[in-house]
């Protein structure tokens, strides 16, 4: 029952925020096994692709989207944590929210999003933040962004063979792909 109340509360809140003031942040990861799971081959022969036995280091992408575009992103080796998130806020978000004081940052309930240091930094930076209710990915347009990004990433040939190649591929791919940000926000509103 508590989850239902959280969802209703979130719906009331997000309905009062125009799309152009909504900013969504999330993170995803890539590794050497992030590739297509299907392929083509000569008739009556089996498709196969060689991938490294070791997945290599995970490469994590933190991204922020608005209704119009990707606002900022950062790629790091390994997983994000509270310290890296604080650095991201300081270096990638603070200026945007100073120039757009009516904007609201929407986050999921990832453990490091809720850390005391993070909450304090968001408050000191005058960044308004709302947390999504648990298990509410339909209200995260950034998930659609990640899905499209991964679809484009997996179609790249040849596959990246090292973590550095994964990062280089992402750095070159992210700015060049046009996505339907507005459509994703409209889809989110349908669920609200």
Structural summary, described in words:
With 192 residues, the chain is α/β, with parallel strands linked by helices. Helices cover 40% and strands 17% of the residues. The chain has a five-stranded mixed beta sheet with strand order 3-2-1-4-5, with helices on both faces. β4, α3 (116-124) and β5 form a beta-alpha-beta unit. α2 packs parallel to α3 (116-124) and α4 crosses α6.
List keywords for this structure.
40% helix; 6 helices; globular; alpha/beta; 192 residues; 5-stranded mixed β-sheet; single chain
Cα(first) to Cα(last) distance is 18 Å
Which stretches are poorly predicted, pLDDT < 50 over at least 5 residues? none
Beta fraction: 15-25%
User: What series of H and E elements makes up the topology?
Assistant: HEEEHEHEHHH
Oligomer designation: single chain
- Secondary-structure-derived class: alpha/beta
Q: How would you sum up the global shape?
A: globular
**Percent range for helical residues?**
40-55%
Number of strands: 5
- Number of DSSP helices? 6
Average residue-wise pLDDT? 84
Largest sheet strand order: 3-2-1-4-5
Q: What is the makeup of the main sheet?
A: 5 strands, mixed
Radius of gyration: 18 Å
Produce the secondary structure layout.
Elements: H1 2-15, E1 22-30, E2 59-65, E3 70-77, H2 82-99, E4 104-107, H3 116-124, E5 128-131, H4 141-154, H5 163-173, H6 181-191
Parallel strand pairs: 1-4, 4-5
Antiparallel strand pairs: 1-2, 2-3
Helix pairs in contact: 2-3, 4-6
Summarize the entry for a quick read.
The protein has 192 residues and is an alpha/beta fold. It is 40% helix and 17% strand.
């Amino acid at each position: 029952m508590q989850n239902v109340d959280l969802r209703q509360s979130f719906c009331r809140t997000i309905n009062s925020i125009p799309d152009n003031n909504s900013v969504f942040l999330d993170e995803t990861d890539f590794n050497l096994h992030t590739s297509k799971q299907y392929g083509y081959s000569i008739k009556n022969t089996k498709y196969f692709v060689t991938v490294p036995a070791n997945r290599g280091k995970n490469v994590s992408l933190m991204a922020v989207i608005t209704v119009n575009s990707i606002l900022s992103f950062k790629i790091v080796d390994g997983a994000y944590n509270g310290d890296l998130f604080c650095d991201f806020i300081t270096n990638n978000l603070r200026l945007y929210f100073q120039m757009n004081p009516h904007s609201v940052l929407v986050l999921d309930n990832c453990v490091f999003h809720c850390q005391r240091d993070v909450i304090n930094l968001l408050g000191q930076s005058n960044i308004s933040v709302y947390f999504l209710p648990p298990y509410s990915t339909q209200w995260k347009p950034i998930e659609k962004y990640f899905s499209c990004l991964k679809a484009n990433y997996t179609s790249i040939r040849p596959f990246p063979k090292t973590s550095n190649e994964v990062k280089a591929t992402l750095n070159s791919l992210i700015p060049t792909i046009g996505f339907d940000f507005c459509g994703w926000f409209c889809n989110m509103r349908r669920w609200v």
